[in-house]
Amino acid sequence: TVCAPRALVPTPHAHAMPSESTDNIHVAVRVRPFNQREIDRGARCIVEMPDPHSTLLKNPQTGAVERSFKFDFSFWSHNVHDTSYASQRIVFDAMGQSILENAWKGYNATLMA
User: Fold this and answer.
1) Does the N terminus or the C terminus of the chain have fewer Cβ atoms within 10 A?
2) What residues pair up with 47 in beta bridges, in sequence order?
3) pTM exceeds 0.85 for this model
């Protein structure tokens, strides 16, 4: 298979963002499951996340890595049965909680999806 989840199991601790962070912007990427149309067409996932911060894009014909990206968070949510699956709770604990806490403190907070 072309899809390859990272070997590490994502946990809130592994993705933790300090609530008193001095950073202004955090960037995360999340691989979603295929929708029914993609499943019906036999789509193959060309994304790999070897660790909680890296995302690789592979050539669909050769499987060779074409691009490599680093993010504050890379969440693998493509297959709920993978040991590295990032649930809504994991994503919220890693990012949403601190965004919410800072909004309650009066800071501007924006979450784009």
Assistant:
1) C
2) 57
3) no
